[in-house]
Amino acid sequence: MADVYEIHPIDFEASLDVSACYCEWQGQFLFLKRCERKSQGGLWCVPAGKREKEESVIETALRELHEETGIIATKNLLSPIRILYVELPHVCFNYHMYHLVIPAKPTIVLDHDEHVDSCWLSLEEASRLPLVAGEKESLKFVTPRHR
């Protein structure tokens, strides 16, 4: 269970930054199924990960996207969605959300140490998946851009 806040709570102290990339192709979004042996294994999420010291949060989103899916994007293609503040029982983090519209369906190359499956779904379909903590709450801030 996660507590997800839109406004930075007064007593909230994040120990890390996580960046996520909500990849959209023809009105559907990319979701990845986490490897069973990982934290929250067997659950679904978007490409995301922890910021490394030398990175900006947008660089984290780009790196994680490439590492987890093989998709290469540049900063100018990412649109910021918002920052959410996520509190789990063991950690608090700033969740930086980015949107990427992909013009052609890419081949997904999974890092099988991280994820075992991928799928493209509408946000409504994705909300019915077993999602990692906080993901369902995050989806309400994502607006499809496909026309």
Report on the structure:
The protein has one domain (3-139): Alpha-Beta Complex (Nucleoside Triphosphate Pyrophosphohydrolase). A hairpin with a 2-residue loop joins strand 2 and strand 3 (28-34). It is α+β, with helices and mostly antiparallel strands and 147 residues long. It contains three helices and eight strands.
Provide a compact summary of the structure.
By secondary structure, this protein is of the alpha+beta class.
The secondary-structure class comes to alpha+beta
Query: What do the pLDDT scores average to?
Result: 94
Strand content: 35-45%
Rg to the nearest angstrom? 14 Å
Distance between the termini: 34 Å
- Which of globular, elongated, flat, extended, rod-shaped describes the shape? globular
> Could you name the CATH topology?
Nucleoside Triphosphate Pyrophosphohydrolase
The CATH homology group name = Nucleoside Triphosphate Pyrophosphohydrolase
DSSP strand count: 8
Largest sheet entry: 8 strands, mixed
CATH architecture: Alpha-Beta Complex
Uncertain spans:
none
Specify the CATH class: Alpha Beta
How many discrete domains?
A: 1
Number of helices: 3
Order of helices and strands: EEEEEHEEEHH
Helix content: 10-25%
